[in-house]
Design brief:
Layout (H helix, E strand, L loop, with lengths): L13 H39 L19 E2 L2 E7 L3 E5 L7 E3 L12 H6 L3 E3 L7 E2 L8 E5 L5 E5 L2 E2 L18 E2 L2 E5 L14
Parallel strand pairs: 1-5, 2-6
Antiparallel strand pairs: 2-3, 4-11, 5-8, 7-8, 8-9, 10-11
Length: 201
């Protein structure tokens, strides 16, 4: 016996042919809608990331903080311009130095592991002398204080000095004005005061 075959698509009634086309067209439209939805979600994610980055002087998020050495041995203090804050105190590598407003009477308040990770103190190597004073720095304002772990931290005008883990290059001052660990942080001027006079110190 010879199997009977149905009529070819061209021999079928117009209604049957149009049904096949409608199914194919619906599938194509569905695929396009799904693709547009994925693209829209991606655009929203990119927009949110861009908004969260803030301005040129916005602080970097903690996930973007660069790893820092456990000991930042100080050998020299200088004065150099930093982005958005003018001329401030910097270490031997040109990195901006900060003070913590809660550090009164040369007593460091940033002593927890989390705080020390984000605000590494400017330490003195064991047995090392005080850092040398570069241009613009007052040598009589340089001193030191002992951290609870026994290491000596450099002070300037009585303020313990810190770096900010979000600064990755000389001239950056992303830590300026950040309020965390109980108080604000400011870059240090050559006179040994916070860069922002509005704090009233």
């Amino acid at each position: 016996m010879v199997a009977r075959r149905g009529p070819a698509l061209e021999d079928r009634p117009p209604a049957a042919r149009s049904g096949r086309r409608r199914q194919s067209g619906a599938s194509t439209i569905g695929w396009r809608l799904r693709a547009r939805s994925v693209a829209a979600l991606a655009a929203v994610a990119l927009s949110a990331a861009a908004c969260s980055s803030g301005g040129a002087h916005a602080a970097r998020p903690r996930s973007a903080l660069a790893p820092v050495a456990s000991v930042n041995a100080a050998t020299r203090l200088s004065v150099a311009p930093a982005q958005g804050v003018g001329k401030v105190l910097v270490d031997a590598q040109g990195m901006t130095l900060y003070l913590f407003v809660l550090d009164h009477a040369s007593k460091p308040k940033c002593v927890t592991s989390l705080c020390l990770a984000e605000w590494p103190p400017l330490f003195l190597a064991p047995g090392a002398p005080l850092p040398k004073a570069g241009p613009g720095v007052h040598a009589n304002l340089i001193g030191s204080v002992t951290q609870p772990n026994g290491t000596r931290q450099v002070t300037y005008n009585g303020w313990p000095l810190y770096l900010w883990a979000g600064d990755t290059a000389p001239g950056e001052a992303y830590g300026e004005g950040i309020a965390n660990f109980g108080g604000p942080w400011f870059a240090v001027t050559a006179s040994g005061t916070p860069d922002k006079a509005s704090v009233g110190l």
